[in-house]
């Protein structure tokens, strides 16, 4: 059951926008190594890097059109 659940979770994560997935992994890793103020700064910088991406626009369009997004990693 563990392997099945793990593979299902990995598949779900892999379907997300690659840029935001990488950023989320960095944020999770950093969270255990820093204080809250530095963590907030890191999150703001990450958000600002993600806003101009085409994947963000695709995510918004897909949500509005009620369809699955087609993320390209750009």
What is the ordering of alpha helices and beta strands? HHHH
Count of individual domains: 1
**How many beta strands in the DSSP annotation?**
0
Distance between the termini: 35 Å
What is the CATH topology?
A: Lyase 2-enoyl-coa Hydratase, Chain  A, domain 2
Cα gyration radius (Å) = 15 Å
Largest sheet entry: none
Average pLDDT reading: 92
Can you count the helices?
A: 4
Quickly name the level 1 CATH class.
Mainly Alpha
Low-confidence stretches are none
Assign the CATH architecture. Answer: Orthogonal Bundle
> Could you estimate the helical fraction of the residues in percent?
over 70%
Quickly give the structural class: mainly alpha
Shape: flat
General description of the model:
By secondary structure, the protein is mostly helical. It has a single domain (2-64), classed as Lyase 2-enoyl-coa Hydratase, Chain  A, domain 2 (Orthogonal Bundle), CATH 1.10.12. It contains four helices and no strands. The chain is flat, with a radius of gyration of 15 Å.
